[in-house]
Amino acid sequence: MEEKLTGLVLSKTDYGENDRIVKIFTLEKGTLSASLKGVKKSGAKLKFASEPFCFAEFMFSERAGKRTVIGANLNDSFYPVREDIIKFFAAGAMLEFINKFAKEEMTSPSLFFAAIEGLKQIAYGGVPPRYALCAFLLNALKISGYALNTGGCFLCGKAINERVFFDTFSGGFLCGNCFNGEGREINNATYAALKKIENGEETTEEENLFALRLLDFYIKNKAEEKLNSMQELLKM
Ligand SMILES: [Zn+2]
After folding, report:
1. How far apart are CA 220 and CA 98, in angstroms?
2. Measured in angstroms, how far is the CA atom of residue 208 from the centroid of ligand 1?
3. Are residues 64 and 26 part of one domain?
4. How far does the centroid of ligand 1 lie from the alpha carbon of residue 46, in Å?
5. Residue 129 Cα, ligand 1 centroid: separation in angstroms?
6. What are phi and psi of 39, to 5 degrees?
7. What is the CA(158)–ligand 1 centre distance, in A?
């Protein structure tokens, strides 16, 4: 059986002499694995389709439940993400997020388009890579059922102007009046940075780092996942 699907390569694993298995996030069928034969040979026609960040129309053949990529039409390889270390880790963190949060065969067009849009922003500019990653994560967390509520105090609904507390369990922010011991106090600038990014407003690179640190903390503590590329970005 042959099948054509639009997808984004998330990761690759070498096996055998010349073959690879890739994990692909597809628009139509969520994440799936497929093998590519002979792609490590020099001049292999489908080598490009076995590289992470490859966004293409893939043609698969399926036999006994195992998929093989037999053709691919490239839409974009987001090449510039390989030329800059910050772009590379920011884009890599997006792929890692999808790899960990998009369940096998779970379809999510909104996450798919968020990823393509985020990779475009990182590769071709417009906004700083860390900003694009934060914006992607805020959106992707929402899609994955882990929304952060930056709108105002999670309990009383009022705008938070002074002390801010963050409750990992609810993903909500609380004002000083509503804080009841659950969660921890965070820097007001971190909260302000997240709100700005959520609203599409400009930020400084320092604000992007504040926002990224909180997102990293939340992903580790609430979703119990760690994005390795994000650790690299926070160190630089
Ligand atoms: Zn409150």
Report:
1. 15
2. 25
3. yes
4. 56
5. 33
6. -75, -10
7. 6
- Check: CB of residue 127 under 8 Å from CB of residue 121: yes
Are 165 and 90 in a shared domain?
yes
The answer to whether residues 116 and 225 belong to one domain is yes
Q: How many Å apart are CA 203 and CA 207, to the nearest integer?
A: 6
Domain residues for the domain of 168 are 80-235
Same domain, 63 and 166: no
- Among candidate residues 23, 45, 76, the one where a domain is terminated: 76
Q: Tell me how far the alpha carbon of residue 212 lies from the centroid of ligand 1, in angstroms.
A: 24
Cα-to-centroid distance, 186 and ligand 1 (Å): 15
154 C-alpha to ligand 1 centroid (Å): 7
- How many separate domains does the chain show? 2
CA 162 – ligand 1 centroid, Å: 11
Shared domain for 63 and 107, answered yes or no, is: no
Give all strands (DSSP E) within the chain, no chain letters: 2-15, 19-26, 30-36, 55-63, 66-76, 164-167, 172-175, 184-186
Each of the 236 residues of the chain gets a pLDDT tens digit; together they read 899 999 999 999 999 899 999 999 999 999 999 999 999 888 899 999 999 999 999 999 999 889 999 999 999 999 999 999 999 999 999 999 999 988 777 899 999 999 999 999 999 988 999 999 999 999 999 999 899 989 899 999 999 988 999 999 889 999 999 998 888 999 999 999 999 999 999 999 999 999 999 999 999 998 888 999 999 999 88
CATH number at residue 38: 2.40.50.140
Task: Give the end of a domain, one of 76, 109, 132.
Answer: 76
How many Å lie between the centroid of ligand 1 and the Cα of residue 142? 22
What pTM, to 2 d.p., does this model score?
A: 0.94
Contacting residues for 120 by C-beta, under 8 A, at least 6 apart? 76, 78
